[in-house]
Specification:
233 residues; alpha+beta; two-stranded antiparallel sheet; 7 strands; rod-shaped; Clp_protease_adapter_ClpF; Hemimethylated_DNA-bd_dom; Hemimethylated_DNA-bd_sf; signal; DNA binding
Length: 233
């Protein structure tokens, strides 16, 4: 079988392409001028007709508009679906975070729920200075709950089975006096561990001004926002 190189292949392609070109030339130049004009007119008319049908026809533009709207509507529906999903997802996430934060701030007498009326069995008040009976540190009361409000894990660790009854007694949030060098800044303790001190004004703690505006000789004076939560203290 003879080998065909690139040059031979090129020559064959040129010869083959010459046939339709020769036919076109013979058809064009084999006619007189009148026929050539008629052929040209037919070509122009056919081209113009095709152009008008494609670009100047109202039906053609209507079809294009329908196609574009269908694609746009599909994209819009997908976009709305994605938007709804994102709103749902982040809304649910935000709600859960908000619920968790609200639940966290309801622990350890940090809830902003107004303590009114004040139960008679709550012996102590916000602003009173205390001493812990067992550990000996001093501090000031900044909040109370009618019973312990804390995470279950904290309660299990704080109160073993023998002391479970203490969970249902009043609990107080304490700012611990830094002068004691106790190491902790706050405490949440049951009522039975508290002794009130009268006439002791100085409690050193960085949050004192946030809770209190002064001292009246028997206890610290609550800031207005704190007084709204504990109106009877």
């Amino acid at each position: 079988m003879p080998h065909i190189n690139a040059a031979a292949a090129l020559q064959i392609c040129v010869l083959l392409s010459a046939l339709p070109a020769q036919y076109f030339i013979s058809q064009w130049y084999g006619t007189d001028s009148v026929q050539r004009i008629q052929i040209t007119e037919r070509l122009i008319i056919a081209s113009w007709s095709s152009f008008t049908k494609s670009y100047l026809s109202l039906d053609a533009w209507a079809d294009r508009l329908k196609l574009w709207l269908s694609k746009t509507r599909t994209c819009l529906n997908v976009g709305l679906l994605i938007l709804h999903f994102r709103n749902w997802y982040y809304g649910e996430k935000k709600t859960k975070i908000g619920d968790n934060e609200a639940e966290t701030h309801s622990y350890f007498a940090e809830s902003s729920h107004v303590r009114s009326p004040k139960p008679e069995y709550i012996q102590f008040s916000v602003g009173q200075v205390i001493v812990h009976k067992r550990f000996g540190y001093s501090g000031v009361i900044v909040g109370w709950d009618v019973k312990a409000k804390a995470p279950e894990e904290w309660l299990r660790h704080k109160y073993p089975p023998a002391k479970q009854d203490l969970k249902d007694t009043p609990h107080y949030r304490i700012l611990i006096n830094k002068a004691n060098g106790f190491g902790k800044s706050t405490a949440y303790i049951p009522e039975e561990e508290i002794t009130i001190i009268m006439g002791l004004e100085v409690v050193h703690h960085p949050d004192m001004k946030a809770y209190f505006s002064g001292y009246d000789g028997s206890k610290y004076i609550m800031q207005p926002w704190l007084k709204k939560i504990y109106p009877h203290d």
